[in-house]
Amino acid sequence: MTKLETERLILTPWKRKDAADLYDYAKNPNVGPHAGWKPHADIKESRRIIKTIFKPNQVWAIRDKETGKAIGSIGFEEDKYRPRIKSREMGYSMDEAYWGKGLMTEAAKEVIRYGFDVMKLDIICICTGPENKRSQSVIRKCGFTYEGTLRYAYKIYDGTVRDVLCHSLKREEYYGD
Fold this sequence. Notes:
Elements: E1 4-5, E2 9-13, H1 19-26, H2 32-35, H3 43-54, E3 58-64, E4 70-78, E5 87-94, H4 103-117, E6 123-128, H5 133-141, E7 145-155, E8 161-170, H6 171-175
Helix pairs in contact: 1-3
């Protein structure tokens, strides 16, 4: 996985030693449940997430450039709605202490650039819940188009089933073709 850099951030592959940083923000009940995952119970769970989810997929640790601390995650996974197309679904999370500073939009724009320039994707999608207003703000700022709502489509960690707002950005839209 390639290291990426923005004005204020460095995006790197996750390492086992990053589990403490991940746990530090992923235990917060204001972070995970918005994306449908439960707050991490302990550092062992954070280690397991790094090993079983972040490393096998293309997920970067978002690091504060000044401190090197992992303050979030961003990456690609298979696009379950477009299985035979050069498409990926982007997902992200960030430490609540860093919300409202434009950092996630900054990271997302760099990952989108990487997706189109390096991975040669044709389309990138993001799916989020109707209640996740912060994610919707990032999605708008990155130029995604709202495709529609898939009703009663996503079961979260507590058994609740949510609607999913689907957004996408096509290669030609990104490049302005």
